[in-house]
Structure formats: structure tokens, C-alpha cells
């Protein structure tokens, strides 16, 4: 008798609430510690990026127009679903262990971080906005509004925790997200897409790509329908590519200098000031009648 041959899973992209294969037909092998292929992930192309931008732009109005309470409930649901698949994520992270963070700890803190920003969804406006003292018979208010489409680039350190830490702040403010998973462990991002699909996240609000940073970063930087970038762990060459590309369209680029166990710092990573780069401030003048 011969051993039964298993069919390796191919993790798909997550675009517009669906799971398409990359239009280019390319995949990347996922190897275990012994170097054996255990799965494949789709290698996203420039066209896949464009389609995810279209999906995010279409979903932005509905997501930004939802109540802050509703957005918080959806993000909390993502945390609940992540809790339900905790063992799967521990196994995925254990296949390529991070020396600074134990897999079980990373998953637990990822859940907590989502819960934290679910809470900020209906509170960040009070912290970032204000009632301005002005001279004259007016009320003057400044309130934050979401920027638009934000690309998240996860760090190879803590591939799950960095991804949710970078994704949750702009998401809770009402932005639509395109996330590029960490190259060190791409199935983590792909499975997070499966969680979003079953977590009441409207189609297109969160889109997840897997593939090569080197290939996609220049296109991310130059795409005029992307409003901001939130990333970590980029090499100097990748950072230079971003700066060169955004110089023509002036999108916001916010890169975090965090690595390893630094992602466990709740005081830093759960701050409402991680939301601030991804909102626009609107000031309203209203006669006071006095």
C-alpha cells in the first residue's frame, strides 16, 4: 500500500467580502520547520490591489456612516471569532515561532487589542475632538472624521498581533482597510480574512492580501485612491519606495518603530493617538444666540 497523498490547502485573498484567487494565478509555498510544503497562499498582484481598493472605496461610505456603537460591536465580534479559533492561530504561529512572543500570548493579546479598539470606537471623538473657546456669539466644535481607504502593512515580528494592532485603530474610526499580511507567516493574515467574513464585517470594509512587499509597496504608494498607510517593520529600501511614491499624491504615511516584544506594550499600542493619524478634523461654527 502507498501513503495517501494529501491535498494542500491554498489560502485565498479576501477582497470585497469574497475569497478570490489572485488574477495572476501565482502562489507561494508555506513550509514547515523541516522545509516541507504544508500549504500555499496566493501571491497578490497589482490588479488584486486595484480591485481591493475599489472594494474598499465602495464600502467606505456605509462603514463611515454607521454609528460608532455599531462599528465597536463589529470589531468586538471579530475578537469573539478570533477567540473561537484560538487553537488554530496558536498552531499557525507555532509553525514559525517568534522568539520574543510565545504563540499563545500573541493570540491572547491580539484578542485583547481588538476589544480595546472596539471600546475606542465610540470614545475617540471625545478625546481627539474638542469644544473650542472663541471670541464671539458662537459655538465652535472640532470633531474627527475618517480619512478614507487605509493600507495596513503588518510587521514580520508578531504577525498576528502587529496586524490587528495596525488594523484596528483606523478601522474603529470608520476607515476601510486593505491589509498586507506579514511575509514571515502569511496564513495568519489569510485566516484572519476568514474570521472577518463571519464577523458581521460588511463586504469591502476589510480586505486582506498576501504576497511580496517588494512587489506591492510601489503600487500602494502611487495609487491615488489610497488615502493613508499604516505599517511597521519595513526595510530602509521599502521605506524609501513609499516616500518616493507618495511624493506625487501626498497620502499620509505612518510607520511604527516597534518590533518583537514591543507589540505587547498596551500603553503604546492601545492609545487613541494611534487613531489620530487616520482622521480628518472638521470644525463647525454655530451661532449661540447670545
Give a quick account of the main beta sheet: strands, pairing sense, barrel closure: 5 strands, parallel
N-to-C CA distance: 92 Å
CATH class: Alpha Beta
How many H/I helices?
A: 10
Describe this structure in words.
The protein has helices spanning 46-65, 68-84, 86-95, 103-120, 124-128, 159-172, 186-197, 213-222, 236-246, 266-269, and strands at residues 9-11, 27-31, 37-42, 130-131, 138-146, 149-153, 176-180, 206-209, 228-232, 252-256, 279-287. It has 290 residues and is of the alpha/beta class. The chain has a single domain, classed as Aldehyde Dehydrogenase, Chain A, domain 1 (3-Layer(aba) Sandwich), CATH 3.40.605.10. It has a 5-stranded parallel sheet, with helices on both faces. The protein has a 3-stranded mixed sheet with strand order 1-3-2, with helices on one face. It is globular.
Descriptive tags:
alpha/beta, globular, Aldehyde Dehydrogenase, Chain A, domain 1, 3-stranded mixed β-sheet, 290 residues, 5-stranded parallel β-sheet, 10 helices
In terms of topology, how is this protein built?
Blueprint: E1 9-11, E2 27-31, E3 37-42, H1 46-65, H2 68-84, H3 86-95, H4 103-120, H5 124-128, E4 130-131, E5 138-146, E6 149-153, H6 159-172, E7 176-180, H7 186-197, E8 206-209, H8 213-222, E9 228-232, H9 236-246, E10 252-256, H10 266-269, E11 279-287
Parallel strand pairs: 1-3, 6-7, 6-9, 7-8, 9-10
Antiparallel strand pairs: 2-3, 4-5, 5-11
Structure at a glance:
The chain contains ten helices and eleven strands. The chain has helices at residues 46-65, 68-84, 86-95, 103-120, 124-128, 159-172, 186-197, 213-222, 236-246, 266-269, and strands at 9-11, 27-31, 37-42, 130-131, 138-146, 149-153, 176-180, 206-209, 228-232, 252-256, 279-287. The strands form three sheets. It has a five-stranded parallel β-sheet with strand order 8-7-6-9-10, with helices on both faces. It has a three-stranded mixed β-sheet with strand order 1-3-2, covered by helices on one side. A three-stranded antiparallel β-sheet has the order 4-5-11.
